[in-house]
Amino acid sequence: MPELPEVEQIRRSLLPLRGRLVEGVRVHRRDVVVLPGDPPGGWSRSQSDARPRRLLGRHLLVGGRIERLWRHGKRLALIADDGRAVEVGLGMTGQLLAVGAGERLEAHGHAHVLWRLDDGGRLVFRDARRFGGLWAFEHEADLRAKWAALGPDALDVDAAELRRRLSRTARPVAVALMDQRLVAGLGNIYVQEALFGARIPPRRPANDLGAVEVSRLAAEVHAVLGAAIEAGGSSLRDYVDASGARGEAVRLHRVYGKGGEACPACGRVLERLVLGGRSVVWCPFDQGS
DNA sequence: CGTGGCCCCTGTGGGC
DNA sequence: TGCCCACAGGGGCCAC
Known about the structure:
Blueprint (H helix, E strand, L loop, with lengths): L3 H11 L7 E6 L5 E2 L21 H4 L6 E7 L2 E6 L4 E5 L4 E6 L11 E7 L4 E6 L5 E5 L2 H8 L11 H8 L6 H6 L9 H11 L12 H20 L40 E5 L2 E5 L7
Parallel strand pairs: 2-9
Antiparallel strand pairs: 1-7, 3-4, 4-5, 5-9, 6-8, 7-8, 10-11
The chain binds a DNA duplex through helix 6.
């Protein structure tokens, strides 16, 4: 669900947690937590009963103070003052909710992990579909090593770097941009919005784009993500920030989810196609063919 | 190695 | 009203 703007808004809304001591944690579903040494994708359902019991609390920051909140692309991490780290992948439906002392957790279903903080507040990880999860690291350096496999953050990548990376693949540009190893942070919404703004057809082979087109694309990526962050992210269904607030960036969408409607630029009908198993909406007129 | 296909899950909305 | 199917913001793993 969340792409870079949503994860960034979640990060910002969690900043008040800095300095809090983690007093305890309750884990209701162990299969959403991946510990150091586990298989990278976590334990499968059938294996999870057999996996060794280890001190979950230690790995989930209990006894430490939340010191930093990092984001790279769509990945978020809580770093404790002793260097322990928990990476949060939100998948499609994941949420991190900060619940103040005495406040009730509004939506309590699918709350898999609940931390108790020293001010009486709680931090809750929910995820209905469980495509997301938590990855624990003994030290932030181990997290950094994992993140090194990701491409540059989509907010930072410049046109030259983007072109270099796109030139290595012949996949359709819409598919390539969703590959987090190529550039980190874009998903199906903002890829479509950026390609529309840059007037590039989503099926064009990535290595076919010229320097001028990639310059437009990089500028659009930055503009689209920046505007979405300012609007607090796109709340289509599940996404809310840590305070429970929805974002208003859906109002900015020009093509995402609008197949069959009129193109906001030329008024012709927007088309829908399927690339890499995901539907992509585009304007065959404004985005060439 | 790059690439395409399949799978992991639950919830919702539309068509019948 | 109810049922069934398609589809959803992601990404890991497998076989070519």
